[in-house]
Inverse folding.
């Protein structure tokens, strides 16, 4: 029989074995719950190195807030269809010209505005404003300078004023180069209806130097109308084709000089960077109410085309002809101009123009109709160098030779008639002009 005193000594080896067995079971249980690639908790030796594998990014934390989806971008605000749109522009022109005839009166005759000899001169200044408001369109161009004086020189009111109505003259209108109001009617693509004072659509050249090849204008520009007063309807038939119909007082008439009206039919065609062209007909009585020729119906046919032969070269041609049958028989004219312009350098243009105007005055039963234009056939040649050191600024130097069948120009030694007016005494003139124009 084993005594109690020695019993605990005998139990120590068993307890120790039980303790070791229990520790081993706990370690194995922990190893089974750990991740596969984690080393066993009871092992201190490193595992053999495994080949590199692509590892996936750790999963997001459960507690982290999921990202919100991006809100779609809001479209840019578009202006209202009836928002007011205003465009402001303008230009100014100044020049010095020398006439080798040294005219006694200082006038270079039958030239548009560059008609003064040996003097510095502001030719014109124009402020141009255009507005759109939904279907409404408005256009006003104000002018000052010699252009304003000459623009309405032929506008003579046939009806005199009265005690309750003031008389009208060129000074009534001269500050206006054009002024129109319009409405784009909802017909097809939009029928534009306008009324007021319009710059004429006749001819290739425009009123502003910046829009022309040369500084001076051709004889055709000088002879044909500058403006019309009346109404116009225009419609864009296709992307490149526009047609227009006009009803106006006549040639350069702010108020009509007779009881008749004139009509214009116009077709314009454009292919960007290649071709621009226009054909036009105008018809109506243009003589004064009490003219000796009566009130014959005048017919005018006009057409021009501009061809961009190369991005640095452009060519243009303009033709015009017309007739009327009055008290002195048939009165007619035909005229033409050719243009060429090259751009040898980015800042340099060189242009040339040749033009001719021939008029056949009606003669019948010993009477002769008064000339509509120059009173002579005229021919001109013009060469222009156009230097543009920056956008919207042009310096031009020009030589021009004019010749005529009769004496219609002035030279040194001309005398005055009984009314104090100088009498033309030259059939040719040569001029050099230096001018500058800027626009915005």
């Amino acid at each position: 029989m084993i005594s109690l005193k020695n019993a605990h000594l005998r139990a120590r080896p068993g307890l120790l074995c039980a303790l070791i067995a229990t520790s081993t079971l706990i370690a194995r249980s922990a190893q089974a719950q750990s991740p596969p690639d984690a080393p066993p908790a009871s092992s201190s030796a490193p595992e053999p190195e495994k080949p590199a594998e692509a590892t996936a990014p750790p999963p997001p934390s459960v507690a982290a807030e999921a990202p919100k989806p991006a809100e779609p971008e809001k479209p840019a605000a578009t202006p209202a269809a009836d928002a007011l749109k205003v465009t402001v522009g303008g230009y100014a022109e100044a020049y010095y010209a020398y006439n080798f005839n040294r005219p006694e009166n200082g006038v270079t005759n039958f030239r548009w505005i560059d008609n003064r000899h040996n003097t510095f001169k502001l030719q014109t200044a124009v402020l141009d404003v255009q507005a759109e408001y939904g279907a409404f369109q408005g256009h006003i161009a104000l002018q000052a300078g010699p252009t304003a004086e000459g623009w309405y020189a032929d506008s003579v009111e046939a009806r005199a004023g009265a005690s309750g109505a003031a008389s009208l003259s060129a000074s009534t209108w001269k500050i206006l180069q054009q002024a129109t109001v319009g409405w784009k009617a909802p017909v097809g693509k939009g029928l534009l209806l306008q009324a007021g004072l319009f710059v004429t659509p006749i001819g290739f050249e425009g009123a502003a130097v910046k829009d022309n090849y040369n500084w001076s204008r051709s004889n055709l520009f000088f002879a044909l109308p500058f403006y019309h007063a009346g109404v116009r309807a225009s419609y864009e038939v296709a992307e490149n084709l526009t047609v227009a119909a006009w009803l106006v007082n006549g040639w350069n008439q702010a108020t009509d000089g007779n009881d008749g009206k004139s009509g214009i039919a116009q077709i314009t065609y454009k292919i960007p960077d290649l071709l621009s062209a226009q054909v036009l007909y105008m018809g109506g009585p243009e003589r004064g109410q009490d003219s000796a020729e009566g009130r014959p119906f005048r017919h005018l046919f006009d057409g021009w085309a501009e061809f961009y032969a190369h991005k640095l070269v452009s060519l243009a041609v303009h033709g015009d002809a017309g007739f009327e049958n009055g008290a002195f028989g048939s009165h007619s004219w035909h005229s033409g101009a050719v243009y060429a312009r090259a751009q040898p350098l980015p800042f340099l243009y060189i242009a040339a123009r040749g033009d001719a105007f021939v008029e056949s005055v009606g003669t019948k039963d010993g009477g002769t109709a008064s000339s509509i234009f120059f009173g002579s056939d005229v021919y001109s040649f013009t060469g222009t160098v156009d230097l543009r050191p920056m956008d919207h600024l042009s310096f031009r130097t020009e030589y021009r030779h004019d010749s005529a069948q009769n004496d219609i120009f002035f030279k040194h030694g001309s005398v005055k008639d009984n009314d104090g007016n100088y009498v033309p005494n030259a059939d040719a003139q040569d001029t050099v002009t230096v001018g500058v124009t800027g626009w915005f």
Summary: Residues 1-56, 60-64 have pLDDT under 50 and may be disordered.
